[in-house]
Amino acid sequence: MIASLLNNARSRLAKRTRYNRMVEEIQSLTQRDLADMGADRGEMLRHAYLDIYGK
Q1: Does the structure show a pLDDT above 80 at 17?
Q2: Using an 8 Å Cβ cutoff, are 40 and 34 in contact?
Q3: Looking at the domain assignment, is residue 28 inside a domain?
Q4: Could you please report the per-residue DSSP string of the chain?
């Protein structure tokens, strides 16, 4: 039981850490970078969330 709770907490922490890293990277892109890629920051953030949490 306790091992399961610890594993769940570790998994959540790992997901949150990965998500935060992705958000930092996306937020560091300039408008010029986004324009060159033909990307939208909001869409990128949404896809990052979906990739990590799948909701």
Answers
A1: yes
A2: yes
A3: yes
A4: -HHHHHHHHHHHHHHHHHHHHHHHHHHT--HHHHHHHT--HHHHHHHHHHHHH--
Q: What are phi and psi of 46, to 5 degrees?
A: -65, -45
Residues 34-48 have pLDDT tens digits of: 999 999 999 999 999
Residue 45 in domain: yes
Query: Does residue 7 sit within a domain?
Result: no
Count: domains in the chain: 1
Q: Give a yes or no: residue 9 inside a domain.
A: no
Is residue 21 within 8 A of residue 43, CB to CB? The reply is no
Supply the range of the domain harboring residue 34: 19-55
- Residue carrying structure tokens 């560091």: 28
Q: How many CB atoms lie within 10 A of CB 47?
A: 14
